[in-house]
């Protein structure tokens, strides 16, 4: 298996009241009315916003404009000294098309907060691999900020405004599939995007002890089993100390949750670390929790009713 030297961690600057956020669409076209509602929500929180020139473009196909236009919006957001952070409108499909053309030197010279989930897993992975940038798997403008209950405010503030210490617990949906304790750097994202990168130049690099967060939407238990087996066979879990899965109610009906639990445990029967499930981040129906990828975390899944995921360092700098 190819080995890589670990990229030094780069922490972006914290978002302060009045921070300016670039709103862009690296993947699929969002609904304009939902983008407007999300922007109004962000402005109500005290942020300034600037909408990417091509954020509402339609086509070709399901993309938010041509590849070069989506790429330009992303590069411009990083390059603009007046922009403090970047928030995606929605996922869908398209971010992976940008990867061969991304400018690592530009991002290294202008590190800043990047927020998105789902399809943007490929961008999180690239930013980690090529820049070492801490990124944020969190609420998007059209997908979450357009709804009154779409965003978990506490994790947003803790992650982006350097409030610490903090932790997530059963109140945030976590339940234990396999007890234990673990420490590592948080990584992961949408499982299908994460797994499909294997064998490409954009494979996730897990060089240090790491805790994986994995979630998805519309995938059945046997598909979870298959993709997790793929991760095992690839060697990606070699340095993984613990795994936390998301809220899988977007994948299975309530009566199938036990079936999914058993499929996950079957796929990970040779994995020795603790396993949790149910964390309300990513494809969720409400109160989307923001997770900083690239920070040190610990899992304490041993005491019944007191399972916790602790964030051991701040994700941003002053």
Main attributes of the structure:
eight-stranded mixed β-sheet; six-stranded mixed β-sheet; 318 residues; 21% strand; single chain; Rossmann fold; 2 domains; Glucose Oxidase, domain 1; globular; alpha/beta; 14 strands
List the helices and strands and how they pair.
Blueprint: E1 20-24, H1 32-44, E2 48-51, H2 67-79, E3 85-88, H3 104-109, E4 113-116, H4 121-131, E5 135-137, H5 141-145, H6 153-160, E6 166-169, E7 175-178, E8 181-190, H7 191-196, E9 210-215, H8 221-234, E10 240-246, H9 257-267, E11 275-279, E12 291-293, E13 296-300, E14 308-311
Parallel strand pairs: 1-2, 1-3, 3-4, 4-5, 8-9, 9-10, 10-11
Antiparallel strand pairs: 5-12, 6-14, 7-11, 8-13, 13-14
